[in-house]
Amino acid sequence: MAENHIFVVDDEEAVCNSLAQKMDNLYGDNYIISKFLDANEAIEFTNDIDEEEDNLALIISDEKLNGMQGHEFLEIMTKTHPLSKKILNSAYSIEEP
């Protein structure tokens, strides 16, 4: 049976837990919510997802991660899961001139 997945990736455990809990409250009946404190763990976990049957529907990542930046992680995930929707979170602000 096909499974739908949502990944939450953030190296700050409290933020990761909070966002994963929110996703679970909203979508837990229809999606498997997986949380990762490390982008490489998320990448490795995707090896267990059967692209033919399962759907990695959404990936939510922080920009500042241990080991690589969030945009780098999402670039990798785009190559392996091009149909997945991606959200990049950042606490950085953009300064207006």
Topology:
Blueprint: E1 4-9, H1 13-27, E2 32-36, H2 39-45, E3 55-62, H3 70-80, E4 85-89
Parallel strand pairs: 1-2, 1-3, 3-4
Describe the protein.
With about 100 residues, the chain is α/β, with parallel strands linked by helices. Helix content is about 35%, strand content about 25%. The chain has helices at about 15-25, 40-45, 70-80, and strands at about 5-10, 30-35, 55-60, 85-90. The chain has a 4-stranded parallel sheet with strand order 2-1-3-4, with helices on both faces. The radius of gyration is 13 Å and the shape is globular.
Based on secondary structure, the structural category is alpha/beta
State which percent range the strand residues make up: 15-25%
Number of helices: 3
Assign an overall shape. globular
> What is the number of beta strands?
4
Following the backbone from N to C, one meets helices and strands in this order, namely EHEHEHE
Order of strands in the sheet with the most strands?
2-1-3-4
Low-confidence stretches: none
- Portion of residues in helices? 25-40%
Radius of gyration, CA atoms, in whole angstroms: 13 Å
Main sheet, how many strands, which sense, barrel? 4 strands, parallel
Distance between the termini: 53 Å
Quote the average pLDDT.
Answer: 91
